Amino acid sequence: MASVDLRLLRYFLAVAEESHLTKAAARLGIRQPPLSQQIRALEQELGVTLFHRLPRGMELTESGRALQADARSILALVDQAVDGVRRVSLGEAGRLTVGFTGSAAFHPFVPSVIRRFRESAPQVRLVLEESSTGELMEDVRDGRVDVAFIRGAHGVDRGVAVETVLEESMLAAFPADHPMVKGRARKRIALSELAEESLILYRRHSGPGLYDAIISACRAAGFSPRVAQEAPRMLSTLSLVAAGLGVSLVPASLRRVNIEGVVYVNVSGPAEMRAPLTLIWRDAPLTGAIRRLIEEVRAHREAEVPAR
């Protein structure tokens, strides 16, 4: 049976269901003589008689009835497999691993895109992985993560595609009892006012782009920052700020993180600090699910522009 042409099985089923060559030929969109030849070819290949030829039609033999049930199952499985492959190609099925940094997850853009993707492709198995920017770049390059939302793309490896999704301003995060903010509702400070402060930054290995942007902005403001602590995660910096160990500079979307003991203030300086939100993926032929997510990101970004 492995050598039987699936097309012959479809012809066989049409004749079996119509019990008539001419009607089956019309249903299949072919002429009757070629269909009759194909049925005989199938019988010769199998070495059995599948139909009794009657004056006014075709009647299944015992062998034909046995083949009919199996042929239906075989063709149904083939159709199911073809449909599954097409759904994966269209990004409607399969598996997608999406990485993100802790700070990226707090920007409303990221959960909104994930939600819209799940609504449009509910059959895709979505796996979410949180890690640092450096680790996510390696995971994408090596194929362990399909796409990732990171902060900047400083030092991204060759073979990894990069697209900036948006940029947001930076905030200073102070301990609530810090003299600069205690008892005063300060809305903005100059970056130069942090020259003597102990800074708590996101570890450079974890997010080199953001780290370097902060250092460059401080130098443009006329001072070399005093980095007292480096935390492995962006949220860890806020915990250290709340403990009174120093001041941090974080993306504005982290204002949504309501940590007791932390006060956020806008920052101005000679060089505006911007925190990019970047999408990366492996620069290789894309699966349907990856392509679908990228398209969702682009569409959502375009829809967000008028609102911003």
TrEMBL record:
The keyword GTP-binding does not apply. Belongs to the LysR transcriptional regulatory family. Signal peptide: none annotated. It comes from the Bacteria. Residues 4-61 form the HTH lysR-type domain. Keywords: DNA-binding, Transcription, Transcription regulation. This is HTH-type transcriptional regulator BenM. The keyword rRNA-binding does not apply. InterPro entries: BudR_PBP2, LysR_HTH_N, LysR_subst-bd, WH-like_DNA-bd_sf, WH_DNA-bd_sf.
